[in-house]
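Hi W., the guanosine-5'-triphosphate complex you wanted:
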Amino acid sequence: MHLNVETLSLINGGQALVLALMLWFGTHGGSNHALNGLRLRAGALLLEACGDFMLAFDFKFSQLTLLLVGNTFNLTAQALTIVALRMVLGRQRRWREAVLLGIAGWLGVTYLSTVDPNYLLRVLWGSIILVCNASLNIAALWGGCRKRETRAQCVLIWAYMLAIALLAWRNISLWTLPTPLQGIGSPSPINVIYVFLLGMQPLLASVGFLLLYNEILQRELYNLARIDPLTGVTNRLGLLEASETLLARARSKRESIGVLLIDADHFKSINDRFGHDHGDQVLLELVANIRRMLRTGDLVGRVGGEEFLVLSPSVQEADLLALAERIRAAIEGSSFPVAGETYALTVSIGAAIADASEPDMMAARRRADTALYEAKRAGRNCVMISAS
Ligand SMILES: Nc1nc2c(ncn2[C@@H]2O[C@H](COP(=O)(O)OP(=O)(O)OP(=O)(O)O)[C@@H](O)[C@H]2O)c(=O)[nH]1
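Structure:
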Protein backbone atom coordinates (compact mmCIF):
# COMPACT_ATOMS: atom_id res chain seq x y z
CA MET A 1 0.00 0.00 0.00
CA HIS A 2 1.29 3.43 -0.86
CA LEU A 3 0.10 6.50 1.01
CA ASN A 4 1.40 9.93 0.15
CA VAL A 5 2.06 12.72 2.63
CA GLU A 6 -1.14 14.57 1.71
CA THR A 7 -3.37 11.53 2.39
CA LEU A 8 -1.61 10.75 5.66
CA SER A 9 -1.92 14.38 6.75
CA LEU A 10 -5.64 14.37 5.90
CA ILE A 11 -6.16 11.24 8.02
CA ASN A 12 -4.13 12.72 10.90
CA GLY A 13 -5.91 16.05 10.69
CA GLY A 14 -9.32 14.39 10.69
CA GLN A 15 -8.33 12.23 13.63
CA ALA A 16 -7.00 15.22 15.62
CA LEU A 17 -10.13 17.28 14.84
CA VAL A 18 -12.53 14.54 15.96
CA LEU A 19 -10.50 13.98 19.15
CA ALA A 20 -10.41 17.74 19.83
CA LEU A 21 -14.21 17.98 19.52
CA MET A 22 -14.74 14.87 21.69
CA LEU A 23 -12.42 16.18 24.40
CA TRP A 24 -13.86 19.69 24.29
CA PHE A 25 -17.54 18.77 24.36
CA GLY A 26 -17.01 15.79 26.64
CA THR A 27 -15.38 17.86 29.38
CA HIS A 28 -17.79 20.74 29.74
CA GLY A 29 -19.90 21.19 32.81
CA GLY A 30 -17.24 21.67 35.47
CA SER A 31 -14.06 23.54 36.13
CA ASN A 32 -10.97 22.30 37.89
CA HIS A 33 -7.31 22.17 36.93
CA ALA A 34 -7.54 18.65 35.50
CA LEU A 35 -10.62 19.38 33.37
CA ASN A 36 -9.07 22.65 32.20
CA GLY A 37 -5.95 20.67 31.28
CA LEU A 38 -8.06 18.33 29.14
CA ARG A 39 -9.65 21.32 27.41
CA LEU A 40 -6.26 22.82 26.74
CA ARG A 41 -5.25 19.48 25.21
CA ALA A 42 -8.38 19.75 23.02
CA GLY A 43 -7.11 23.17 21.90
CA ALA A 44 -3.71 21.66 21.09
CA LEU A 45 -5.40 18.94 19.01
CA LEU A 46 -7.29 21.59 17.08
CA LEU A 47 -4.02 23.33 16.21
CA GLU A 48 -2.49 19.97 15.24
CA ALA A 49 -5.48 19.41 12.96
CA CYS A 50 -4.93 22.85 11.35
CA GLY A 51 -1.25 22.01 10.71
CA ASP A 52 -2.17 18.64 9.22
CA PHE A 53 -4.91 20.08 7.01
CA MET A 54 -2.43 22.64 5.66
CA LEU A 55 -0.13 19.77 4.67
CA ALA A 56 -3.05 17.83 3.20
CA PHE A 57 -3.95 20.79 0.98
CA ASP A 58 -0.38 21.91 0.40
CA PHE A 59 -1.09 22.81 -3.25
CA LYS A 60 -3.10 25.77 -1.95
CA PHE A 61 -0.15 27.32 -0.09
CA SER A 62 3.32 28.52 -0.94
CA GLN A 63 6.23 26.51 0.48
CA LEU A 64 7.11 29.40 2.80
CA THR A 65 3.57 29.73 4.17
CA LEU A 66 3.40 25.99 4.69
CA LEU A 67 6.65 26.06 6.57
CA LEU A 68 6.12 29.11 8.73
CA VAL A 69 2.43 28.71 9.53
CA GLY A 70 2.38 24.91 9.61
CA ASN A 71 5.25 24.83 12.08
CA THR A 72 3.63 27.54 14.19
CA PHE A 73 0.54 25.32 14.51
CA ASN A 74 2.51 22.20 15.36
CA LEU A 75 4.96 23.77 17.79
CA THR A 76 2.21 25.73 19.57
CA ALA A 77 0.24 22.49 19.87
CA GLN A 78 3.27 20.80 21.44
CA ALA A 79 3.77 23.67 23.91
CA LEU A 80 0.07 23.61 24.87
CA THR A 81 0.27 19.84 25.38
CA ILE A 82 3.16 20.20 27.83
CA VAL A 83 1.21 22.77 29.86
CA ALA A 84 -2.01 20.74 29.58
CA LEU A 85 -0.28 17.67 30.98
CA ARG A 86 1.05 19.67 33.93
CA MET A 87 -2.47 21.03 34.55
CA VAL A 88 -4.01 17.56 34.52
CA LEU A 89 -1.36 16.44 37.01
CA GLY A 90 -2.07 19.48 39.20
CA ARG A 91 1.49 20.78 38.80
CA GLN A 92 2.69 24.35 38.24
CA ARG A 93 1.98 25.31 34.63
CA ARG A 94 5.48 26.52 33.64
CA TRP A 95 4.52 28.23 30.38
CA ARG A 96 8.01 29.65 29.97
CA GLU A 97 9.84 26.37 29.21
CA ALA A 98 7.11 25.21 26.84
CA VAL A 99 7.02 28.52 24.97
CA LEU A 100 10.83 28.82 24.79
CA LEU A 101 11.05 25.30 23.38
CA GLY A 102 8.42 26.16 20.77
CA ILE A 103 10.27 29.33 19.75
CA ALA A 104 13.62 27.49 19.56
CA GLY A 105 11.99 24.80 17.41
CA TRP A 106 10.37 27.32 15.09
CA LEU A 107 13.54 29.44 14.68
CA GLY A 108 15.72 26.36 14.03
CA VAL A 109 13.38 24.86 11.43
CA THR A 110 12.90 28.23 9.72
CA TYR A 111 16.67 28.83 9.60
CA LEU A 112 17.37 25.36 8.20
CA SER A 113 14.68 25.80 5.56
CA THR A 114 15.24 29.35 4.38
CA VAL A 115 18.60 30.82 5.41
CA ASP A 116 20.73 27.69 5.19
CA PRO A 117 18.50 24.96 3.69
CA ASN A 118 19.51 21.54 4.97
CA TYR A 119 16.78 18.92 5.08
CA LEU A 120 18.77 16.39 7.07
CA LEU A 121 19.72 18.89 9.76
CA ARG A 122 16.10 20.01 9.86
CA VAL A 123 15.01 16.43 10.60
CA LEU A 124 17.65 16.27 13.33
CA TRP A 125 16.59 19.62 14.81
CA GLY A 126 12.91 18.61 14.76
CA SER A 127 13.83 15.37 16.54
CA ILE A 128 15.82 17.25 19.20
CA ILE A 129 12.82 19.48 19.88
CA LEU A 130 10.55 16.42 20.13
CA VAL A 131 12.99 14.78 22.56
CA CYS A 132 13.05 17.95 24.70
CA ASN A 133 9.26 17.95 24.60
CA ALA A 134 9.05 14.35 25.72
CA SER A 135 11.64 15.06 28.44
CA LEU A 136 9.59 17.95 29.83
CA ASN A 137 6.56 15.67 29.93
CA ILE A 138 8.55 12.92 31.61
CA ALA A 139 9.79 15.45 34.19
CA ALA A 140 6.16 16.41 34.96
CA LEU A 141 5.15 12.75 35.29
CA TRP A 142 8.22 11.57 37.16
CA GLY A 143 7.26 12.35 40.78
CA GLY A 144 4.32 9.95 40.84
CA CYS A 145 5.84 6.93 39.20
CA ARG A 146 7.13 5.38 42.39
CA LYS A 147 3.67 4.97 43.88
CA ARG A 148 1.49 2.00 43.01
CA GLU A 149 -1.64 4.09 42.64
CA THR A 150 -0.13 6.13 39.81
CA ARG A 151 0.20 3.39 37.24
CA ALA A 152 -1.07 5.58 34.36
CA GLN A 153 1.80 7.99 35.04
CA CYS A 154 4.28 5.11 34.78
CA VAL A 155 2.72 3.95 31.52
CA LEU A 156 3.03 7.44 30.05
CA ILE A 157 6.65 7.76 31.17
CA TRP A 158 7.43 4.50 29.35
CA ALA A 159 5.57 5.72 26.27
CA TYR A 160 7.57 8.96 26.16
CA MET A 161 10.83 7.04 26.72
CA LEU A 162 9.94 4.74 23.86
CA ALA A 163 9.28 7.79 21.66
CA ILE A 164 12.75 9.17 22.55
CA ALA A 165 14.36 5.80 21.77
CA LEU A 166 12.60 5.65 18.38
CA LEU A 167 13.70 9.19 17.50
CA ALA A 168 17.28 8.31 18.42
CA TRP A 169 17.10 5.09 16.38
CA ARG A 170 15.68 6.93 13.36
CA ASN A 171 18.34 9.65 13.45
CA ILE A 172 21.25 7.27 14.06
CA SER A 173 20.10 5.01 11.22
CA LEU A 174 19.78 8.03 8.90
CA TRP A 175 23.16 9.51 9.71
CA THR A 176 24.99 6.22 9.37
CA LEU A 177 23.70 5.67 5.80
CA PRO A 178 26.12 6.46 2.96
CA THR A 179 23.42 8.76 1.48
CA PRO A 180 21.30 9.87 4.45
CA LEU A 181 18.90 12.01 2.42
CA GLN A 182 17.65 9.02 0.47
CA GLY A 183 17.02 7.15 3.69
CA ILE A 184 14.40 9.63 4.94
CA GLY A 185 11.63 8.39 2.67
CA SER A 186 12.73 4.76 2.32
CA PRO A 187 10.39 2.02 3.63
CA SER A 188 12.93 0.85 6.25
CA PRO A 189 11.51 -0.75 9.44
CA ILE A 190 12.26 2.33 11.54
CA ASN A 191 10.63 4.66 9.00
CA VAL A 192 7.52 2.51 8.89
CA ILE A 193 7.30 2.37 12.72
CA TYR A 194 7.98 6.12 12.91
CA VAL A 195 5.27 7.08 10.39
CA PHE A 196 2.81 4.65 11.97
CA LEU A 197 3.34 6.04 15.49
CA LEU A 198 3.39 9.63 14.26
CA GLY A 199 0.00 9.02 12.68
CA MET A 200 -1.34 7.47 15.90
CA GLN A 201 0.20 10.18 18.09
CA PRO A 202 -2.92 12.36 18.54
CA LEU A 203 -4.94 9.31 19.58
CA LEU A 204 -2.24 7.76 21.79
CA ALA A 205 -1.51 11.02 23.62
CA SER A 206 -5.22 11.67 24.15
CA VAL A 207 -5.77 8.18 25.55
CA GLY A 208 -2.82 8.88 27.87
CA PHE A 209 -4.45 12.10 29.05
CA LEU A 210 -7.72 10.31 29.73
CA LEU A 211 -5.95 7.51 31.62
CA LEU A 212 -4.26 10.14 33.79
CA TYR A 213 -7.55 11.94 34.35
CA ASN A 214 -9.23 8.68 35.32
CA GLU A 215 -6.44 7.95 37.77
CA ILE A 216 -6.72 11.40 39.31
CA LEU A 217 -10.49 11.05 39.69
CA GLN A 218 -10.06 7.63 41.31
CA ARG A 219 -7.57 9.11 43.76
CA GLU A 220 -9.86 12.04 44.56
CA LEU A 221 -12.80 9.69 45.13
CA TYR A 222 -10.66 7.48 47.35
CA ASN A 223 -9.59 10.49 49.43
CA LEU A 224 -13.07 12.00 49.56
CA ALA A 225 -14.38 8.75 51.01
CA ARG A 226 -11.63 8.54 53.62
CA ILE A 227 -10.74 12.09 54.64
CA ASP A 228 -12.72 14.26 57.00
CA PRO A 229 -13.46 17.43 55.01
CA LEU A 230 -13.25 19.80 57.99
CA THR A 231 -10.08 18.70 59.71
CA GLY A 232 -8.29 16.90 56.86
CA VAL A 233 -7.58 13.84 59.00
CA THR A 234 -8.73 10.28 58.31
CA ASN A 235 -12.46 9.65 58.79
CA ARG A 236 -14.24 6.58 60.17
CA LEU A 237 -13.83 4.50 57.00
CA GLY A 238 -10.16 5.41 56.71
CA LEU A 239 -9.65 4.56 60.37
CA LEU A 240 -11.37 1.21 59.95
CA GLU A 241 -9.11 0.28 57.05
CA ALA A 242 -5.99 1.63 58.75
CA SER A 243 -6.85 -0.32 61.92
CA GLU A 244 -6.94 -3.58 59.99
CA THR A 245 -3.66 -2.82 58.20
CA LEU A 246 -1.94 -1.87 61.45
CA LEU A 247 -3.28 -4.95 63.22
CA ALA A 248 -2.03 -7.23 60.42
CA ARG A 249 1.41 -5.61 60.67
CA ALA A 250 1.37 -5.87 64.49
CA ARG A 251 0.51 -9.58 64.22
CA SER A 252 3.47 -10.26 61.96
CA LYS A 253 5.80 -8.47 64.37
CA ARG A 254 4.01 -9.76 67.52
CA GLU A 255 3.58 -6.23 68.78
CA SER A 256 0.64 -4.36 70.29
CA ILE A 257 -1.15 -1.22 69.13
CA GLY A 258 -2.07 1.69 71.36
CA VAL A 259 -5.56 3.18 71.00
CA LEU A 260 -6.48 6.64 72.30
CA LEU A 261 -9.96 8.14 72.16
CA ILE A 262 -9.68 11.90 72.66
CA ASP A 263 -12.80 13.95 73.33
CA ALA A 264 -12.94 17.74 73.76
CA ASP A 265 -14.49 18.77 77.07
CA HIS A 266 -17.62 20.93 77.09
CA PHE A 267 -17.28 21.62 73.40
CA LYS A 268 -20.95 22.51 73.16
CA SER A 269 -20.26 25.63 75.23
CA ILE A 270 -17.85 26.90 72.53
CA ASN A 271 -20.52 26.53 69.86
CA ASP A 272 -23.13 28.09 72.10
CA ARG A 273 -20.92 31.03 73.01
CA PHE A 274 -19.06 31.79 69.79
CA GLY A 275 -21.04 30.04 67.07
CA HIS A 276 -20.44 26.92 64.99
CA ASP A 277 -17.84 28.48 62.65
CA HIS A 278 -15.57 29.42 65.53
CA GLY A 279 -16.18 25.94 66.94
CA ASP A 280 -14.84 24.56 63.66
CA GLN A 281 -11.69 26.68 63.99
CA VAL A 282 -11.12 25.29 67.49
CA LEU A 283 -11.48 21.75 66.13
CA LEU A 284 -8.80 22.49 63.52
CA GLU A 285 -6.50 23.89 66.18
CA LEU A 286 -7.18 20.87 68.38
CA VAL A 287 -6.20 18.47 65.58
CA ALA A 288 -3.02 20.46 64.92
CA ASN A 289 -2.12 20.16 68.62
CA ILE A 290 -2.71 16.40 68.64
CA ARG A 291 -0.69 15.93 65.47
CA ARG A 292 2.28 17.79 66.91
CA MET A 293 2.49 15.25 69.73
CA LEU A 294 2.45 12.11 67.56
CA ARG A 295 5.40 10.05 66.41
CA THR A 296 5.97 9.09 62.80
CA GLY A 297 3.77 6.07 62.17
CA ASP A 298 1.03 7.19 64.59
CA LEU A 299 -2.31 7.94 63.00
CA VAL A 300 -5.03 10.35 64.05
CA GLY A 301 -8.56 10.26 62.71
CA ARG A 302 -11.92 11.86 63.46
CA VAL A 303 -14.47 9.43 64.83
CA GLY A 304 -17.20 12.06 64.78
CA GLY A 305 -18.10 15.45 66.31
CA GLU A 306 -15.34 16.47 68.71
CA GLU A 307 -13.97 12.96 69.22
CA PHE A 308 -10.67 11.77 67.72
CA LEU A 309 -8.93 8.41 67.63
CA VAL A 310 -5.18 7.92 67.73
CA LEU A 311 -3.62 4.60 66.70
CA SER A 312 -0.07 4.19 67.86
CA PRO A 313 1.72 1.04 66.67
CA SER A 314 4.43 -0.81 68.62
CA VAL A 315 3.72 0.66 72.04
CA GLN A 316 3.45 -0.77 75.53
CA GLU A 317 1.01 0.51 78.14
CA ALA A 318 3.51 2.90 79.77
CA ASP A 319 4.47 4.51 76.44
CA LEU A 320 0.81 4.89 75.49
CA LEU A 321 -0.05 6.55 78.80
CA ALA A 322 2.90 8.89 78.40
CA LEU A 323 1.74 9.83 74.89
CA ALA A 324 -1.83 10.42 76.08
CA GLU A 325 -0.58 12.56 78.96
CA ARG A 326 1.58 14.61 76.58
CA ILE A 327 -1.40 15.28 74.36
CA ARG A 328 -3.64 16.19 77.29
CA ALA A 329 -1.03 18.53 78.80
CA ALA A 330 -0.23 20.16 75.44
CA ILE A 331 -3.90 20.98 74.88
CA GLU A 332 -4.38 22.20 78.42
CA GLY A 333 -1.29 24.41 78.01
CA SER A 334 -2.40 25.86 74.65
CA SER A 335 -4.58 28.89 74.30
CA PHE A 336 -7.15 28.57 71.52
CA PRO A 337 -7.88 31.87 69.77
CA VAL A 338 -11.65 32.24 69.32
CA ALA A 339 -13.25 35.44 68.02
CA GLY A 340 -10.46 37.64 69.36
CA GLU A 341 -10.47 35.93 72.77
CA THR A 342 -8.43 32.99 73.97
CA TYR A 343 -10.23 29.89 75.08
CA ALA A 344 -8.80 27.30 77.45
CA LEU A 345 -9.77 23.92 76.05
CA THR A 346 -9.17 20.59 77.71
CA VAL A 347 -9.61 17.02 76.55
CA SER A 348 -10.45 13.74 78.20
CA ILE A 349 -8.67 10.64 76.90
CA GLY A 350 -9.52 6.96 77.10
CA ALA A 351 -6.64 4.59 76.34
CA ALA A 352 -6.46 0.88 75.55
CA ILE A 353 -3.93 -1.58 74.20
CA ALA A 354 -4.87 -3.87 71.31
CA ASP A 355 -2.98 -7.10 71.58
CA ALA A 356 -1.69 -8.65 68.36
CA SER A 357 -3.72 -11.79 69.13
CA GLU A 358 -7.06 -9.91 68.99
CA PRO A 359 -9.19 -10.76 65.95
CA ASP A 360 -9.92 -7.07 65.20
CA MET A 361 -9.64 -3.61 66.73
CA MET A 362 -13.27 -3.35 67.83
CA ALA A 363 -12.73 -4.72 71.32
CA ALA A 364 -9.85 -2.30 71.97
CA ARG A 365 -11.98 0.57 70.64
CA ARG A 366 -14.75 -0.38 73.06
CA ARG A 367 -12.29 -0.53 75.97
CA ALA A 368 -10.91 2.90 75.06
CA ASP A 369 -14.51 4.19 74.91
CA THR A 370 -15.21 2.86 78.40
CA ALA A 371 -12.00 4.47 79.66
CA LEU A 372 -13.03 7.77 78.05
CA TYR A 373 -16.39 7.57 79.80
CA GLU A 374 -14.54 7.06 83.10
CA ALA A 375 -12.30 10.06 82.35
CA LYS A 376 -15.39 12.22 81.78
CA ARG A 377 -16.95 10.94 85.00
CA ALA A 378 -13.76 11.61 86.90
CA GLY A 379 -14.13 15.31 86.13
CA ARG A 380 -12.62 15.56 82.56
CA ASN A 381 -9.14 16.83 81.55
CA CYS A 382 -7.55 13.51 82.47
CA VAL A 383 -6.38 10.18 80.99
CA MET A 384 -7.83 6.79 81.90
CA ILE A 385 -6.68 3.42 80.63
CA SER A 386 -8.81 0.32 80.52
CA ALA A 387 -7.68 -3.02 81.78
CA SER A 388 -7.16 -5.33 78.76
N1 LIG B 1 -18.33 23.51 65.54
C1 LIG B 1 -18.58 22.21 65.44
N2 LIG B 1 -19.21 21.59 66.45
C2 LIG B 1 -19.44 20.29 66.36
C3 LIG B 1 -19.04 19.52 65.24
N3 LIG B 1 -19.41 18.24 65.44
C4 LIG B 1 -20.02 18.20 66.64
N4 LIG B 1 -20.04 19.44 67.21
C5 LIG B 1 -20.61 19.87 68.46
O1 LIG B 1 -19.91 19.29 69.54
C6 LIG B 1 -20.82 19.34 70.68
C7 LIG B 1 -20.70 18.07 71.46
O2 LIG B 1 -21.53 18.21 72.55
P1 LIG B 1 -21.64 17.15 73.70
O3 LIG B 1 -21.73 15.76 73.07
O4 LIG B 1 -22.74 17.54 74.62
O5 LIG B 1 -20.23 17.16 74.38
P2 LIG B 1 -19.46 18.33 75.14
O6 LIG B 1 -20.22 19.60 75.13
O7 LIG B 1 -18.10 18.38 74.56
O8 LIG B 1 -19.41 17.78 76.59
P3 LIG B 1 -18.54 16.59 77.14
O9 LIG B 1 -18.08 15.76 75.99
O10 LIG B 1 -19.46 15.83 78.01
O11 LIG B 1 -17.40 17.20 77.86
C8 LIG B 1 -22.21 19.62 70.13
O12 LIG B 1 -22.58 20.95 70.44
C9 LIG B 1 -22.04 19.46 68.61
O13 LIG B 1 -22.89 20.37 67.91
C10 LIG B 1 -18.38 20.21 64.19
O14 LIG B 1 -18.00 19.63 63.16
N5 LIG B 1 -18.17 21.53 64.34
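The mean pLDDT is 91.

W.
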